[in-house]
Amino acid sequence: MPIVLYGQFEAADTQRRELVSRGIQQRSWLIAQALAPILNRPEGPPHKSLNAELQRFNDERTLLKLMFRPGNSPSSGNFYYIASAPESRLDQIGAELEGLADRGILRQLSESCAWDRPIDIRYRQPDGHEEIMTSVLPIQSRWGCWVLISAHPTTEFLNISIGRSYWQTREIRIAAAIYFAFALLAILIALSVWRSLHHFRKVAREIRQGRMTEYSFTDRNIVPELTSVATDFDHLVRDLRNIAQDIRQTAEDNAHSFKGPLSTIQASLEPIRRILPEDNPRANRAVGLIEASLSRLNMLVNSTQRLDFNTADMIDAPRLQIDLTRLVADVLLRYREIMTERNIRLIRMLEEDATIRAAHGVVDIVFENILDNAISFSSPGGTIAVYLFREADRIHLHVDDEGPGIDPRKIEHIFDRYFSQRPKGSRQIVAGAQQSANHAGLGLWIVRRNIEAIGGSISAVNRIGGGLSIRIVLPYAR
């Protein structure tokens, strides 16, 4: 906005300067036209009254001088100093002529008469503060060539200064000083607000990362205007921790409530199975279906309880610095025996300095579920490759297997809740141990939820030649 306004004002000032310049030139021309009849009288010009005639057109700041060269030939001779307004004393004429000569005005007199055209000259006073605009106007007469020298200070009209940049004017410099003062004040206010918000953010990050056990938004707030906001944040943190505690308590209560009746049903099936005749396949099949349903219900109860605990940890657990290289190496060590038993070859390339920030146990579950899937779908003699590396401020974790891959039409849904392509009765691997169970389809959904909760992303692509590649990208914690 200041630049636009400056451009508009500068354009207006330029037009005003042009008007002033033309006004000065027209004024000098009118004076010359008024003197022409007097200087061209047949009986000769009134030499003795010319000072008085010039004085009629003079004001306090305009300087008028009249020079004369007898004859109309360019080589007629030199110019004579005839009159001036204000009138000059004899002892001043020499100094004035020297000044005209120094400024190049005397050299222009002959040229002006020869071509019968006015000449404009600008120069500054010796002190450099005021510019003088001088017009040299020829007046042709029967007696010779008269030249009217009219000098006007450029501040004479509209109080402006011609010949310098608009930004050098006094008004613009005052306006610029005021503007920059306000701009500096605005910057200081913005820096103060930024510093306060930065401190507020730092406190929020410390609470989120679990560095402080108390609700200290209000205690550590340094901005009076944010006191009410800090109090509301304290209440929010307290409510979130209460919710996390309620989730854990509800998960334990629900698991206990379900496992009791399920255990009773499981125990009651044993005597029923013993008394069933072997030649009644329909009854035996019904008992088998009940046992399978009980097994699935137990698995769902355990999965739901683990899911609720994991949800509570993401809400309440502190964010810690985690060495992902060491975590991945430890998980691979726990799975070493099961991979050896299934004759699965492991390739691992783990770079150092792969640090992330997450709640304890969140990333362990992620990698265990992904490795569980890779082992479950790998054939004996297959290969699983694990790559961990850092690019700029991102950590990349890839787990590649040589299994059957995923139907391209379904690959976008493998991280959806309850989606599973495991065959019934397949071996599930939990923390490096095998157990037979049906799958709830929550593993990869938990993986995506946990990864996105710590600011990462996950994707899956079918490998060329067969197999699946799970790719995780996490923010690097310096």
The H/E string reads: HHEEHHEEEHHHHEHHEEHEEEEHEE
Order of strands, main sheet, comes to 2-1-5-4-3
Q: What is the tally of helical segments?
A: 12
User: Using DSSP, what is the number of strands?
Assistant: 14
Low-confidence spans: 424-438
Beta-strand percent range? 15-25%
Cα gyration radius (Å) = 50 Å
Task: Report the mean per-residue pLDDT as an integer.
Answer: 80
The computed structural class is alpha+beta
Architecture per CATH nomenclature, i.e. the level-2 architecture of the largest domain: 2-Layer Sandwich
How many discrete structural domains? 3
Alpha-carbon distance between the termini? 42 Å
According to CATH, what is the class of the largest domain? Alpha Beta
Largest sheet: 5 strands, antiparallel
Gross geometry = rod-shaped
Fraction of helical residues? 40-55%
Q: What is the CATH superfamily label of the largest domain?
A: PAS domain
CATH topology annotation of the largest domain: Beta-Lactamase
